Structures are given as C-alpha cells and as structure tokens.
Amino acid sequence: MELKGFYCFMILLIVSFSDASRLSKTPVKSIKSEDGDVIDCVHISRQPAFDNPLLRNHVIQTRPKFSLEGLPANKLSNSKNLPIAQLWQLSGSCPEETIPIRRTKQVDALTASSIHRNLHSTVARHTEQIRQEGRPKLQLAAALVEGEYYGAKATINIWGPLVQQSNELTTSLLSISRGSSLSNLSSIEVGWQVNPSLYNDNRTRLFTFWWNRFKGCYDLLCSGFIQITNKIALGGALSPLSIYHGEQFDIDVFVLKDASQDVWWLQVGKETLGYWPTSLLPNLANSASTILWGGIVFDSESDGQHTTTQMGSGHPPEEGFEGASYMKNLQVVVESDNLSPLSNPVAIAQQPNCYNVTLGKSSYSGDYIFYGGPGRNPNCP
C-alpha cells in the first residue's frame, strides 16, 4: 500500500504555511469571545480566498447540489450530535452576507512555520523519510481505504486531549487525497485539533487544511477555501467536549466532490461551510484515491523520550465507548453521490503501544473506529 505521499503531506500539515496577505480586510462587525478570540465578520466577497489570482473572477457558489437526506441516523447510545457549537457564538453573531474569521496576527500565523522550520527542511530533502532515530515523529492511528472516491463522511467524537509541548499537536481528522509525492499531492483535511503553536492555546478547535504541490493552508489563514456560512468560524473553539465515562459529543463532517460545479464541498453538522475549487487542487480535479480517518500526534521528543501528548481521549481503544475516542458512520462516495460503507478498510498504527486503533461495524454506527492513547507509558517509553 502506497502511503508515502500521505505521510509527507502530514509532516507539512504541521508546518502550516500561511500567506503574508492574510486578511487586512475591514470587518463589518467584530465579536469578542469569552475564550479570548476576536471574530471579524467580513463581507463574503472580501474573504481571503479572493486574494488568489486564480479566483479573482470566481462566482461564489451559494449552495451545493446535494443533501444529506436519507443518511443513517447517529444511533450510538448516549452520544449527542448537536448543531456545532463554538464559544464565540455566545457573544454574538455575524450578519447575513458576511463570514466569521478568527482574527490572527501575521506573526501568530507564521509561528508554526518558524517552530518547525528545521523539520520542513528535512522533509524537503528527504521526502520519503519521516523517521528520526528510528521513531516516527508523526504518530498515526487510523483507518484507510484506497480506490476512486468522490467524497467521504464521518461522525467524530470531540475531546480535549493534553499536549505536552507547545510545538506539538494532536488532531482527529478526515483526510481526502491523491498523489504519492509532494510534487503531485493534493489533499483536503477537516476535523478538530489542539495546536498551541498555531492557535496560541490548548483549546480543541475546528480546522480545515488543504495542500497542493508544496503549498498548504490552515482555515482561512490564506487564500483557498471559500466560505459561505456566517455561523461557523474555522479555527474556532468547540464546546462542549466529551467527558471520560460521561456524556459524549460529536460532529458530523462530510466532504463531497460536485462535478457540475468543479468544487469539493464541506458540510459540518447540517451547516454547509463552503468549498475548495478544484482549480487549486488539480490532482483532486476528478476524484480522490485515498481516504483516511483517525488521529495524529506530532512528537517533538524534546526530552529524548516519547511525548505524553494524548491522542483522542488519551485512552486506548480497548476502553470502548465513553473511554476511548471514536469515529463512526464512516462512509465514502463511490458513484452517483451515494454514500456507501467501507470496502476492505485497513488499520494503521505506527506505535500501537503508544496510540492504537481498532476497526468495527454495527447496525447502530456503521463502520467505526476506536483510536487513541496516552502517549508515553510503561509500554511506550
């Protein structure tokens, strides 16, 4: 199985490139969130995407030509799949025809790139090597399928895992990609992460990331993703979070290729966030070849030992519901915009004593995984 391109991409996801042109737009309204964020409500036509020369004459698509009607219900007992809630929404809302953009200073947007400059240099020289001294810097525990796909879906359990070092991160995501090397790789990612070097805190935040041929971008930090909703802020903190042996909370994420519009649409919950034009992702112009669901931790090995940064809930998959983190209703679009169950999914865990994954299927939650772990422990020194 050819995973080289995905692993190279994931290293560069951590680098989190940003354009210096990150919005210096005048907001229609600004909202101060209780978590310290400032959300600027910017007119939809003045969002960062249109700083890209490829999109300057782009006509905004106001809605996709698909729906989630008829999809199986989320039946896993005691979990709550609520309309996506972000802390800033408690302090106000953005007007119609605007989009919420989390305010980010240019120096903050470049912090992650600065911290991981040496790592990026190493990857640029050795695109096939993601290991240093025998241990993967990226710890992956996930399910993966390969084929021809036009979309994918997941219900992702939301947690607040601990991150040991500010230059580390932990993320739970859905990844859609095509390409085997950095020179021809196009990819879309969506999920949640705790990334102190990017967001300057340890909150669990909704994120997107796209990558194409040596350039990538988080959220709306540079041009690329076109947002159409005024209700959800990319990079905004999620609330509430799941409780160990207590109440569980989820978000639905769905990415679908619309051939008639030449875009990949993103839906979170019942809200259509926006889309990535295929002109920015040439290798995804027709379809994706690899879909992945799971967790990733970046281990900086700052003290010469494995990190204690947690993946998912911070507990291993054997603990099951209310203990381990899960993703359920894992589905793919194979043809005719119909969601299908997985065919021959493969489980990948690079360091199973640190972070692991188990696959399953049930009538309640379809294809699912339990995944994650605590990082360093007696069996993971």
UniProtKB/TrEMBL annotation:
Signal peptide location: 1-20
InterPro entries attached to this UniProt entry: Glutamic_endopeptidase, Neprosin, Neprosin_propep
Key words of the record: Signal
Neprosin PEP catalytic domain: residues covered: 114-381
Superkingdom as given in the UniProt entry: Eukaryota
Signal in keyword set: yes
The keyword Signal belongs to this UniProt entry's keyword annotation: yes
PROSITE patterns given in the database record: NEPROSIN_PEP_CD (PS52045)
Protein name: Neprosin PEP catalytic domain-containing protein
